[in-house]
Structure formats: structure tokens, C-alpha cells
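User: Structure please.
Assistant: Input sequence and predicted structure:
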Amino acid sequence: PIEEEDARLIQWRAEQISEVPTAELWVLLLHDFPKGGPARHHAAPLARLLNSGVCAWNRTTLDDDFPLLPAALNSSYGYLRETDPHLKLYYYMHMSLLSWNM
């Protein structure tokens, strides 16, 4: 489930974006369910609540879509030196955008 604080932030952004006729909200939902798990059951209510698209993803999905990704990250100067685990996810978030568009 989505934390209450995250839900409020997403709702706030959705309200801001709804004021711009050419903008559309899409949410990249990082989850830790195993492949075939219930991520879509969390994504669907969020999409209805926000009237937006939701793409549920995790590292397993990215590893399946991009089998060379772990080796690429392990040779990345920035990724190897990043000490904040949340900032390390930033690299994966960018790859999730590619996976979403496949």
C-alpha cells in the first residue's frame, strides 16, 4: 500500500497538473512484490483515485527487460560511488521509463 504522506503528495501534484490542459499525470510505482505479484491491485486504485496512468515496476522487471543492466551499473562511475540507497534507485527509475515504453 502507498504511505499516507506519499498519497497526499501525489494527490497534490495531480491537482496542480489538472490545472494545465496539456499536462497529464503518470505515476511510476516502485514495488517489492515478486513477479506476478499483486502490484497491479495497488496500481489500479491509485490510477482511479488520481485519474492518471500508473506503471508498477521493480528491479526484477528491469533485470528481465534489460539483462545487461546490472553489469552496466556495476561499471558506472556514479552508481558505484553513490552511498545513499534512495539515490541509487534513481538510476533504476530512469530505466523503468524505458521499460514502461517497451
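The helical segments are 4-18, 39-50, 59-65, 69-74, 77-81, 85-100.
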